[in-house]
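Hello support,

Our group uses your service weekly, and this is the first time we've seen a run hang past the timeout. The protein is Phasin. I'm not sure whether the cause is the sequence or the server load. Input pasted verbatim:
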Amino acid sequence: MAKTTGNEVSLKTIAALRANAEAGVTHLEALVAVKSVSEFFELQPAFLRKQIEEAAEQAAGFQVVMMRASEDVSKPIKDAFKKALKDRKAA
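Update from on-call engineer: The timeout came from a worker crash unrelated to the input. Re-ran successfully.
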């Protein structure tokens, strides 16, 4: 179970890195094509705003995956603890 969750975290990380790299390359291409300083100063804040929004979305996605991972990892411990308490009460 932990391995599956670890794989999910790894895939999510790779997807985020890929999206960020592609956005960076696309932005760089746009900057290279700029014909004026004012166009540069229009592109830069728009790019930064979009990256901040993307980072917030990625963080929310990571939070969901990490919460699931912590539940998956702690479930066997919780189950063992409940069983031990139940066995102790029965004794």
